[in-house]
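Dear colleagues,

As part of the handover before I leave the project, I'm documenting each prediction I ran so the next person doesn't have to rerun anything. This entry is a single chain, and its sequence is reproduced below.
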Amino acid sequence: MKTVTFCLFLSAILLISSYSQAQTITTKPLSVTSLCPGTAISVDYEITGTFDAINQFGVQISDPNGSFGTFKYLAYLKSTKSGTFQVTIPEDITPASKYRLRVIGTSPFINGSDNGSDIEIFSHPKYQPYLYGGEYGDGLLTLTNFEFDFGYNFDLYDLNSKFQCSWDFGENAQPRYFTGNKTPKVKYSTPGTKTISFNIPAINNCNWSASDSAHLFVVENSCLVKIDSTILIDSTTNYSTYDKSNYTIDSSHMHQIWIYPGKIVSGYFYAPPFTVIMEVGSSVSLGEIHKSVFYLKPGASLTSGRFTKCIIFISKGASINLDRKNPGDNIFIDCDSIEVDYKAAPQSGKDLMISLGYLSDVNDKTNITELKIDPNPANSTLNIRYSLAAANNIKLSLINQLGYELVLKNGFENDGQHVFQLPVMNELISSGVYFIKLQSGSDIKMEKVVIIR
């Protein structure tokens, strides 16, 4: 009887010892060890021994240094058997390269082995498309055949080298397509609205990706500007706000504003970019000017407390209160004269220009084939030679640097070559720089002349 009792007691001890020592949890190696926040992965584990029916297995992730002194639970699973967890890397996790995972049991409580190798968790890229949105409206400006630096205007920062960005810089761009995170300088051979886009595809089982697009307005690098049929005609002499009350804002289109001769306009540009055509002697004063194109004829005056990313075509005799030696991110183009194509202009605008004596409505075709002046400089008689393709009304004027106009001839002229002689000793003419302006219909040509008394 004692022998039997002893054997039963020994068997119980061996059974308890076997139960307490046999439970193990082995966390298997991961199939990928380079991850990003939000990535879903499978974590396999294998057990030995018997776990209680109330047992739960859990997946822990270590601190960034691989220590489980502090950890986070990623998932729980009520089970007594080997299996697989589906877990997601937390979005708020700190990027690091030495993370570990392990599976633990709760009944009995057992810490399993870790996955056996370091896990790198890298952050999502951050990017800011300065080309669109923001307080200054959609789009940036550049000129044809002008190197444009996207690196400054469309910034991808904290972009992990694991990601590669694919770019499309739009029609007639050189280069048009590019892959990389540091953009090249780009030139455009044609004007117009360009759609710029980029795409950052997902990598390394990372479900993060990004894409975006923006507008770039390419302006013809020319002192000729064509008036659009939808131009906003501004002949006011008071404060103007260019916003939704004036037109329907379309971020993919550069709206035009037409400032008439001698008009004084102050105001605010609500949603640039704009193209502003400033006729002779007009004046515009704005608190701030952003992402807009200006064409300043002789005597035109542009004033602002701040210019940002503007293109300014400026003729002789026009003025602007920006230090041209320190233009910042603005571009200046000097023009001997600024020619305006009025063919598509609204008739109401043409009528007003005609009433002011700046435009003839007889012929909208190009009619002036030649305009030459000699001698230049002149100190006695100035010969003004011009040729017309067809008979038409013409207006021949002398304009000083302030935009004041002396009409020399105004009336009908036959086709062919003509010469007008101007005696510069006239008491109305003083020494200085002037412009000879010849207008036939909507065709206008100008030449600079220096007069010495």
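The longest strand covers residues 210-219. The CA atoms of residues 283 and 301 lie 5 Å apart.

All the best with the project,
I.
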